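Run log // design_07
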């Protein structure tokens, strides 16, 4: 894809580009401006591959994306003018798997159950996920289709849970609504890997990322322009991110304002 601007944008979805009703309408102006200028917009979310593909289709995006907090990078075939190392070809994409498969994560989650009350997506029916998240049944089924990590709710000693997970190299991160357990999922590493491919064609490309929660911090630390989309509750998680910009508004309203400000003459 060619662009008049040497910019690459990564964005979280829930609470950032999407509001509590999963709508991005408040960000439509900025979204259309990015598309009109040919600036790649990389969705980088805790959502699964099929979930993100639905949003890409609805938003009219055809760029690569990053699923499940950095578990996998999905790059459309023939998107880049060169070949590159990747794990597999599927779903019309060249896929770079960065994380351990879902079955290993579920096995670890089972080992952690004595530490408290754990309810993961794998324990819930599609109907239960739908009620819990306000997703439609179809959307809930896509959310349940995991490849790398497991969202879950937890009641118990969080410190013990974190120590037990980390002893074997598992990642425990906090998203907008759930904890996420994985091994190898890291938004920052995924952003870094994908950026390196873009830089083969444009070595001086400027990277931007927008996020709003703890699991976005590693992504924000890997870009030139990190933007924190403010929330209605505590925002102290962002304090150690260098050169951080902070939106005045929350959700897609803040996203829209920050992107338009970034692209202003």
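design_07 sequence
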């Amino acid at each position: 894809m060619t662009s008049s601007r040497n910019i690459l944008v990564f964005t979280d979805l829930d609470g950032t580009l999407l509001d509590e009703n999963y709508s991005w309408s408040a960000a439509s102006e900025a979204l259309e401006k990015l598309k009109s200028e040919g600036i790649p917009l990389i969705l980088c979310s805790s959502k699964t591959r099929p979930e993100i593909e639905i949003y890409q289709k609805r938003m009219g995006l055809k760029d690569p994306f990053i699923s499940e907090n950095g578990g996998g990078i999905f790059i459309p075939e023939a998107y880049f003018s060169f070949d590159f190392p990747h794990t597999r070809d599927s779903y019309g994409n060249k896929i770079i798997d960065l994380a351990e498969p879902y079955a290993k994560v579920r096995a670890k989650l089972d080992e952690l159950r004595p530490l408290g009350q754990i309810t993961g997506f794998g324990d819930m029916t599609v109907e239960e996920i739908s009620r819990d998240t306000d997703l439609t049944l179809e959307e809930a089924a896509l959310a349940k289709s995991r490849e790398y990590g497991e969202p879950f709710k937890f009641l118990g000693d969080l410190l013990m849970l974190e120590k037990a997970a980390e002893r074997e190299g598992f990642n425990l991160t906090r998203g907008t609504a759930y904890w996420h357990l994985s091994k190898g999922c890291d938004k920052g590493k995924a952003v870094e890997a994908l950026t390196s491919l873009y830089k083969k064609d444009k070595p001086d490309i400027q990277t931007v990322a927008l996020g709003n929660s703890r699991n976005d911090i590693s992504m924000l630390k890997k870009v030139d322009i990190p933007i924190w989309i403010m929330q209605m509750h505590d925002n102290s998680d962002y304090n150690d991110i260098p050169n951080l910009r902070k939106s005045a508004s929350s959700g897609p309203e803040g996203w829209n304002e920050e992107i338009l400000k970034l692209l202003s003459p």
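DSSP finds nine helices and 13 strands in the chain.
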